[in-house]
Design a protein that fits this description.
This protein is mostly beta strands. It is built from three helices and twelve strands, in the order αββαββββββαββββ. β1 and β2 form a beta hairpin. Bound molecules: Palmitoyl-CoA. This is Acyl-CoA thioesterase II.
Length: 270
């Protein structure tokens, strides 16, 4: 099932009467080990949130906590609550709830663009060559997540998971294998989470790992993207101790303009 079908189903769900709607569910092909792909569940909750916010307000900040696994092929609900709508900023929370447990919790802040005397333009650049084709992670049963059939990754630096690397970074490009109808912020959210956690490459053997929390700051102005575009990604481990890692990534559009900064806390059970 294409991500567009899941986003459309979510939007229909949240816009229909509470008593009339069937539960949502995510097919197995979007699994990431024991859970549904976190980028997808975060994007679906975000998409439901977006339905409750006027189009003059753009996404500035997305915060997502993965409280527990979302089981695929099993119904779940999404609840959205607008916390505050000011003159400029709207703050909304959304939750994915399965078997009466909150599994994913998103808080998003949207803001109108305003005149300001302050302008600091981002100067972070990358020097990666444009990709010519996807550089697939090897398909190892029970190790390579199923959802990766939907996302093309083209790695240019950094190690593969579980290869005993001395590094803990990844540089590369990402895009949808089958382009969506249009590339929205929900699609970007689901794309950005596609890379394996940087610390896993330092391990010699497979071990479970789970992203616990995730924050994306969206940088503006945004330009119109083509659904076929590749986006550049560079992620670094800022620190890893006590079984938890903090990672930070820059995301650029195909013209080399920074569009987002993504940070995650990942629990590793090695
Ligand atoms: C050459 C090579 C090519 C390789 C080719 C590519 C490979 C590529 C690898 C990509 C690897 C993806 C790694 C990111 C995986 C997400 O990002 S998953 C998506 C989003 N995140 C989530 O769904 C997390 C939801 N939250 C949670 O599950 C819980 O809050 C947390 C974070 C696990 C908290 O831990 P906790 O309080 O200890 O939770 P609890 O329920 O008590 O469970 C602990 C147990 O779960 C296990 N566990 C934790 N995470 C997992 C997991 N993901 N799966 C299974 N068991 C897990 C622990 O090991 C522990 O096991 P036991 O000690 O009981 O045996």
């Amino acid at each position: 099932m294409h991500i567009d079908d899941l986003i459309d189903a979510t939007n229909l769900y949240i816009n229909s009467d509470k008593h009339d709607r069937a539960q949502l569910s995510i097919p197995k092909e979007w699994a990431q080990g024991r859970t549904a792909y976190g980028g997808l569940t975060g994007a679906l909750v975000y998409s439901a949130i977006r339905q409750k916010v006027g189009n003059d307000r753009v996404l500035r900040s997305f915060t997502c906590n993965f409280v527990g696994p979302v089981v695929t092929e099993t119904g779940f609900d999404i609840e959205v609550e607008v916390l505050r709508e000011g003159k400029n900023v709207t703050q909304v929370i959304g939750k994915a709830i399965q078997n009466e447990n909150v599994c994913v919790m998103v808080q998003a802040a949207f803001g109108v663009s305003r005149e300001s005397k302050i302008e600091v333009l981002n100067t972070d650049r990358h020097t990666m060559r444009a990709p010519t084709k996807a550089d697939f992670l090897p398909q190892i049963p029970k190790i390579t997540p199923k959802f990766l059939r939907h996302i093309d990754l083209a790695r240019q630096a950094g190690g593969l998971p579980f290869t005993g690397s001395k590094e803990s970074k990844i540089d590369g490009w990402m895009r949808y294998t089958k382009p969506p109808k249009a590339l929205t912020d929900a699609h970007l959210i689901a794309l950005i989470d596609g890379w394996p956690p940087t610390t896993l490459q330092m391990l010699k053997w497979p071990a479970p790992a789970s992203t616990m929390s995730w924050n994306i700051e969206f940088v503006y102005p945004h330009y119109t993207f083509s659904p076929k575009d590749w986006f550049a990604y560079q992620v670094r481990t800022r620190q890893a101790t006590d079984g938890y890692a903090q990672t930070e990534a820059n995301i650029w559009d195909p013209s080399g303009r920074l569009i987002a900064i993504s940070r995650q806390t990942i629990a590793v059970f090695d």
